[in-house]
Amino acid sequence: MFIERDVNSHKKQGSIEVVTGSMFSGKTEELIRRLKRAKFAKQKVEIFKPAIDVRYSQTEVVSHDENAIRSTPVDNSSNILMLSADVAVVGIDEAQFFDKGLVDVVVKLANMGIRVIVAGLDMDFKGAPFGPMPGIMAVADHVTKVHAICVRCGSIAQFSHRFSEKEQVVLLGEKDVYEPLCRNCYLKTQKEPLPPDSYRDSPKGR
User: Fold this and answer.
1) For the structural domain made of 15-205, what CATH number should be given?
2) pLDDT below 70 — which residues of the chain?
3) What is the pLDDT of residue 200?
């Protein structure tokens, strides 16, 4: 279990924390919670997100529950390093959308004494490791894996199933495109793809 360190500690100690899991699992909610605690402790915080993510806001990190915190959209990971001078905490949301250079960036930040908190999907819609996330988890001090609830059976969900026919890995969307599924339900969709409503309308899907 992740034990959050004392945010009032005056010792400048760098670290890398990762919050990961499927869509609708509360990753961004947890990221915002930790960042707001750091702000309450009067620490200087900078938050970044990929510029392509404009689903809720162009300039804020917003959770599915509509909690929000001001952020800076950036096009690539190197910009994060340039914009993080003289800060205590750096937050990065939707890390899976960044380039592979993000791994080196978070390591450099942590080695500079900065607390880095990263949130992102661990797997894409095909169940494969997503972008720089595997590398970031490998170098992290703490990894917290959060889970959603499978919308088809109610079990713990760790897969982000896409019911769009589009095949590109990066496809922004919400409940109109994705649903969280457990392993068993996800495997069933790979064998016999069915519209999500066919499950939700059945007794088991309610």
Assistant:
1) 3.40.50.300
2) 1-11, 53-69, 164-176, 192-206
3) 44
3-state secondary structure the chain: CCCCCCCCCCCCCCEEEEEEECCCCCHHHHHHHHHHHHHHCCCCEEEEEECCCCCCCCCEEECCCCCEEECEEECCHHHHHHCCCCCCEEEECCHHHCCCCHHHHHHHHHHCCCEEEEEEECECCCCCECCCHHHHHHHCCEEEEECEECCCCCCEECEEEECCCCCCCCCCCCCCCEEEECHHHHHHHHHCCCCHHHHHCCHHHC
Structure tokens at 112: 């500079």
- Tell me the residue length of the chain: 206
The neighbouring-strand residues paired with 48 are 72, 92
Q: Which residues contact 178 (CB under 8 A, 6 or more apart)?
A: 23, 24, 125, 160, 161, 162, 163
Which residues is 89 bridged to in the sheet? 45, 115
Q: What type of residue is 168?
A: Q
pTM of the model: 0.80
Residue type, 3: I
* CA-to-CA dists, residue 91 to 27, 35, 87, 119, 205, angstroms: 12, 7, 11, 8, 36
Give the pLDDT score at 206: 29
- Residue linked to tokens 């404009």: 54
**Can you tell me the distance from the alpha carbon of 98 to that of 83, in angstroms, rounded to the nearest whole number?**
16
Give me the active site residues, please.
Answer: 94
